[in-house]
Design a protein that fits this description.
Helix content of chain A: 10-25%
Number of helices of chain A: 2
Shape of chain B: elongated
Order of helices and strands of chain A: HHEEEEEEEEEE
Radius of gyration of chain A: 34 Å
Shape of chain A: elongated
Distance between the termini of chain A: 56 Å
Structural class of chain A: alpha+beta
CATH superfamily of the largest domain in chain A: Rieske [2Fe-2S] iron-sulphur domain
CATH topology of the largest domain in chain A: Rieske Iron-sulfur Protein
Oligomer: heterodimer
Number of domains of chain B: 2
Strand content of chain A: 25-35%
Order of helices and strands of chain B: HHEHHHHHHHHEHHHHHHEEHHHEEH
Strand order of the largest sheet of chain A: 1-10-9-4-3-2
Number of strands of chain B: 6
CATH architecture of the largest domain in chain A: 3-layer Sandwich
Number of helices of chain B: 20
Bound molecules: FE2/S2 (inorganic) cluster
């Protein structure tokens, strides 16, 4: 706000009253120069202080909100139990607790996946999430297909796309066998922009 | 005490308050401003929307006193409100039904404003604030669905996350921002909670304030008449003159109609809520319970339908660009035409557009509800084979009927009107395909059908083809052998079992129907 308009507003507000508003009360002259300079300085000083304070306060606020976007979460090896649980040539349902979890996640920290034992010692572990928009796919042993309840995505037993809208095959977890146990590298929700 | 003294006793505090607050001076013009005499029943929908919004705030605050905004017990807290708190279920029902009602009223209000050209000069910003109100309310509806924290909420978030994830370059970061981390969990619910109870209602209240202020400033538009043309340079003057001359005060002339309509709406709301009860919560939000069929709430069913019908090759672009374009067009409406005729009869193109949009939304909603693209997950195990398709068949053909169920063909194909609609119904397949063609189709798939070649052994394949090549209406030849003998002459009137009602249907009727 310029000092000019301030002077005018003051004049208008004080019209007809006797409050003696400021040095130039009643006159049409602008306020005297020294005051003017001081006001100009005060205004800038105030704006500067507010600006600095605002930035200081914004750092934690913005950081708090966008924190999750920084990828500080890492996948971990998760134990899916003894390899004997997964007979050769079959596809089995498995669940695990997500290694990336927080105290308030409740059941949402549970995660499901499909484990296919191609032959002894050789596995494929598929994410439960359809590669289209993430709905949970279901395995049909008889026709050896995965079907998705949302938009009709269908996959073959090796995870390749068979029909429907999915742009690719099922997401696969990295796996390894250690001490007779099947481990998978899991955590982040699978999505097109990242492989699991 | 005489009357004068009584009046004084009442008057004094009122005057005191008026002196300190100016509330009467402030609200008198709100109530007494003139509105067009022609503003009849068409104009009640905005008020009804506002009433439902008020109900949302009141019931929402009440629910806020019991709801636990934490992924570990939100679902239980809703069950507790429903089952243990006296009339808690009713409060949830009111909140849910009033939210749907608000969306519906808003849509009607917007449609009315569009059809009557009320968005034209000088009410462009009335329209634009209205568009942002609509977006805010839809966002409230979506975040509200998340508050239920059931399976639909969980997988609905998953779908939302998968769409956001497709944004080029920043998809991953945006998804993390939306979910509050790399998975759908506690932080996700709390983010949506903050949106649902702080940010969005705050935005909505602010927007309602601006919207109402604009109504006071620009006045309520008159009913459009053909030939009464909006000319921005002279409109205000003419409008003010007409209001002075023939306008009626908002209170009580127009308000009484609002009151009647809102009263009816309110009573209907209470009855709906009491009769149908609250929405959900559905199954527990445990992502390892995968026997689920995630569907969005009704306001978003048309989007679900649209997403399912998009061609896979271009769906990412369409999913990401069309919302932006859609909102831009809505905002641009008053700038594309802010003067000229307002009457629907003089704007046939716009009316066609409105009808088209409404029909598209209705049709897509219907598609979403019926989801013909989704396999019927338990079709293979739950549906009986209609008796007319097995009666009189050879053991091999009957075995084929078994393999047909066993190989989950029924999840995508109908027989006798029951089964999936993803693929074609197979009741008359033998009239369209020869056994050879059937073998090829089953083995190699194609046309959106998976290949079954590896999963069926040759005995199963023979059986299934044997069965399928008997599927044709009586008296109709199959596709390659003209005039071939029917394998199944129906001799006497049989009674066929309808698989679901259990009521018998005389065979002639069934045969007549199937050979129509
Ligand atoms: S999410 Fe599976 S087909 Fe769309």
């Amino acid at each position: 706000m310029s000092d000019d308009s301030k002077g005018e507003a003051k004049k208008e507000g004080c019209a007809g009253c006797d409050c003696g508003g400021g040095g130039g009360a009643g006159g049409s002259l602008p306020p005297v120069a020294p005051q003017d300079a001081r006001r100009g300085f005060m205004f800038k000083f105030g704006a500067g202080l507010l600006g600095i304070g605002g930035i200081l306060a914004a750092v934690p606020i913005v950081g708090y909100i966008i924190g999750p976007a920084r990828s500080r979460y890492r996948n971990e090896w998760v134990d899916l139990g003894a390899t004997t649980l997964y007979p050769s040539g079959q596809t089995r349902f498995a669940t695990f607790l997500n290694p990336i979890r927080q105290p308030t996640d409740g059941d949402a920290a549970k995660t499901a996946c499909w484990v296919r034992c191609v032959e002894a010692g050789k596995f494929q572990v598929f994410a439960i999430n359809c590669a289209h928009l993430g709905c949970p796919v279901r395995w049909f042993e008889q026709s050896k297909l995965f079907m998705c309840p949302c938009h009709g995505g269908v996959y073959y037993q090796d995870g390749t796309r068979a029909a429907g809208p999915p742009p690719r095959g099922l997401f696969e977890y990295k796996w390894k066998v250690e001490g007779g146990k099947l481990l998978i590298d899991a955590g982040r929700l699978p999505g097109l922009e990242e492989s699991v | 005490m005489n009357r004068e003294a009584l009046i004084q006793i009442v008057k004094q505090p009122v005057q005191w308050i008026e002196d300190r607050t100016g509330v009467i001076a402030f609200s008198t013009p709100l109530l007494s401003h003139h509105v067009p005499r022609s503003a009849k029943w068409w104009y009640v929908f905005g008020s009804a929307t506002l009433m439902f919004f008020t109900i949302q705030i009141v019931t929402g605050v009440c629910l806020g006193t019991m709801y636990a905004p934490s992924a570990s017990n939100a679902w239980e807290s809703l069950r507790y409100i429903d089952e243990e708190i006296p009339l808690g279920w009713m409060l949830r029902a009111l909140h849910g039904w009033s939210s749907s009602a608000m969306v519906v009223m808003m849509a009607i209000h917007m449609l009315q404003v569009f059809m009557h050209g009320s968005f034209k000069f000088p009410r462009e910003l009335n329209w634009i604030t209205g568009v942002f109100l609509l977006l805010t309310v839809l966002a409230l509806a979506f975040t509200g669905q998340v508050m239920r924290w059931d399976q639909d909420a969980y997988w609905g978030l998953g779908i939302g996350a998968a769409i956001v994830d497709r944004v080029p370059v920043f998809g991953d970061q945006m998804r993390a921002l939306m979910l509050g981390g790399p998975i759908i969990g506690g932080e996700t619910l709390n983010r949506f909670f903050a949106l649902h109870v702080f940010i969005l209602p705050g935005a909505a209240i602010g927007l309602v304030g601006v919207h109402m202020t604009l109504i006071m400033k620009n006045g309520i538009s008159e009913m459009p008449k053909p030939g009464e043309i909006v000319v921005p340079s002279t409109y205000r003057k003419g409008f003010e003159e007409r209001m002075e001359k023939s306008g009626v005060p908002f209170f009580p002339d127009a308000a009484q109609r609002d009151m009647v309509f809102c009263g009816v709406c309110l009573i209907l709301l209470v009855f709906l809520a009491a009769y149908y009860g609250p929405f959900g919560p559905g199954g527990m939000p445990d992502p390892t319970l995968i026997n689920t069929n995630p569907r969005p709430d009704y306001p978003f069913m048309w989007i679900f339908g649209a997403v399912s019908l998009l061609p896979p090759a271009s769906e990412t672009a369409i999913m990401l660009i069309s919302p932006v374009v859609g909102i831009a067009i809505l905002v641009a409406v008053p700038f594309l035409s802010n003067s000229g005729e307002r009457a629907p009869s003089r704007r046939p193109g716009m009316m066609l557009l409105a009808v088209f949009v409404v029909m598209a939304i209705v049709a897509l909603t219907w598609e979403g509800v019926t989801s013909p693209w989704s396999p019927v997950m338990d079709g293979w195990s739950a549906l009986p084979t209609p008796t007319q398709f097995v009666k009189g068949r050879t053991p091999l053909q009957m075995q084929g009927a078994v393999v047909f169920q066993y190989a989950q063909c029924r999840n995508c194909h109908e027989l006798g009107g029951f089964g999936g609609k993803r693929g074609p119904a197979l009741d008359e397949i033998a009239t369209r395909m020869s056994p050879d063609q059937i073998v090829r189709q089953v083995q190699q798939g194609g046309g959106n059908m998976p290949a079954f070649g590896k999963n069926l052994n040759s005995a199963q394949m023979t059986a299934i083809v044997g069965f399928l090549s008997t599927l044709r209406p009586a008296n109709e030849a199959d596709s390659t052998i003209p005039g071939a003998q029917l394998p199944l002459p129906i001799k006497s009137p049989l009674v066929l079992e309808s698989p679901f009602t259990g009521t018998g249907v005389p065979a002639e009727i069934s045969a007549g129907v199937s050979s129509r």
